[in-house]
Design a protein that fits this description.
Elements lengths: L5 H9 L10 H7 L18 H6 L6 H20 L4 E2 L4 H5 L1 E3 L6 E2 L4 E7 L7 E7 L9 H9 L9 E6 L3 E7 L6 H7 L4 H20 L2 E2 L8 E6 L2 E6 L6 E2 L1 E2 L4 E2 L2 E2 L1 E2 L3 H4 L9 E2 L4 E2 L1 H18 L13 H10 L6 H10 L17 H4 L7
Parallel strand pairs: 1-6, 15-16
Antiparallel strand pairs: 2-4, 3-4, 4-5, 5-7, 6-7, 8-11, 9-10, 12-13, 14-17
């Protein structure tokens, strides 16, 4: 069954044949100025490079757009209607089936503690319990919990969520345990070659494509949200970290839910957070979360090969594209096709970036089986 993808969302936004698009006209005008600079005194509004626009042009029938829009609407309505955490009082036996080993803490962050866990009815599955206090996570209305429940165990490259509970004090999220840690710790000890990179790139792409089908933009793709798990003879990527996720499509306005830019002077203090350049701008500017996620995707692939950020945030080059391309071409032992793919994802002008559904048509992406080990 076909699902609405990111490029279709863009096509529908530009369509003038459907009267329902008139509602979002004023917002579309506001978004035309895309931040493309780190200079706080300058706003850059740049159209796409004509040659790039031509390269990424595709024709999609209005009938298909309307059909896929209805599928997307259904997904978003289901997501919005999801309940968050189940009350322990209402389902005590279901909660009791999950056992938490509180004597062996796996990890602790500012707002969450993680412990080994298991379900007595399914002991073969290795799980963990993420425990939040209810003051930090609303058990009923948290969009984060709704996303986790909606995604559940539906996709092999997204960390599975088994169940979510709450009592008067805590929220308990039971998820699969991913034993090999995150991408940061892995690449510190293990150099990654081009073939492995392409293998993981395809998995991340499929995870993001599934999110797009569900109306979700991730908004926080970074190496510590990419976990590694053995599957057969391969080490596979699992995407997690959905606290900043949003619904990217407004079903009432039939347009992308644009996000307001963060203050441009905040970028240096935020540091290398794998956010696209246009995320930072002036207070009257917005960015497209779908296209921003593509830049994050490319930046994570770049980091996997180099353990560096694609550009110098503290002292960026006047021409950010030039700096990024220079850094891409310095990566040793990768093909020209790989260089071009990374650069296509990380173009500083969001309008020049490769659209989502052109990724799996890219030569490097499609020919991963031909890349030497």
């Amino acid at each position: 069954m076909p699902f609405f993808n990111h490029s279709m969302a863009q096509s529908m936004r530009k369509s003038s044949n459907d009267p329902s698009f008139s509602k979002s006209k004023s917002k579309r005008i506001q978004i035309r100025s895309m931040p493309g600079t780190t200079d706080p005194n300058q706003t850059v509004a740049r159209s796409a490079d004509p040659s790039i626009s031509l390269k990424y042009t595709q024709k999609i029938s209005q009938r298909k757009l309307l059909f896929t829009r209805s599928l997307l609407r259904s997904q978003i309505e289901q997501l919005s209607a999801q309940e968050g955490a189940l009350s322990v009082r209402q389902v005590p036996k279901l909660f009791e089936a999950f056992q938490i080993d509180t004597n062996n803490k796996l990890n602790e962050d500012s707002d969450v503690q993680m412990f080994p866990a298991k379900n007595t009815s399914m002991p073969e599955y290795v799980m963990m319990a993420c425990i939040y206090v209810t003051q930090n996570v609303d058990p009923k209305n948290s969009f984060y919990l709704k996303v986790l429940r909606h995604l559940g165990r539906k996709h092999p490259y997204i960390v599975n969520t088994w169940e979510i509970f709450s009592d008067d004090v805590n929220v308990y999220i039971f998820q699969e345990f991913v034993p090999r840690g995150n991408l940061i710790s892995y690449v510190e000890e293990n150099p990654v070659n081009e073939r492995q990179l392409c293998f993981w790139a395809r998995q991340i792409y499929r995870a993001l494509d599934f999110l797009g089908d569900s109306g979700i933009a991730h908004r926080n793709i970074k190496p510590n949200h990419l976990l590694l798990k053995p599957m057969g003879n391969e080490l596979c990527i699992k995407l997690t970290g959905f606290k900043n996720s949003i619904i990217y499509w407004n079903i009432e306005e039939n347009d992308v839910n644009f996000c307001q830019c963060l203050p441009i002077n905040q970028q240096k203090s935020d540091g290398p957070n794998f956010q696209a350049p246009e995320v930072y701008g002036n207070n009257n500017e917005f960015f497209d979360p779908i296209i921003a996620d593509l830049w994050s995707f490319g930046a994570n692939l770049f980091f996997t090969l180099t353990q560096f950020y694609p550009y110098n945030i503290d002292y960026p080059h006047d021409n950010l594209d030039e700096e990024i391309w220079h850094n891409v071409t310095k990566i040793p032992n990768i093909s020209t096709e790989c260089q071009n793919f990374l650069y296509a994802l990380m173009r500083s002008n969001a309008n020049d970036r490769i659209p989502f559904d052109f990724i799996d048509k890219d030569d490097w992406f499609r020919k991963s089986y031909m890349i030497p080990s």
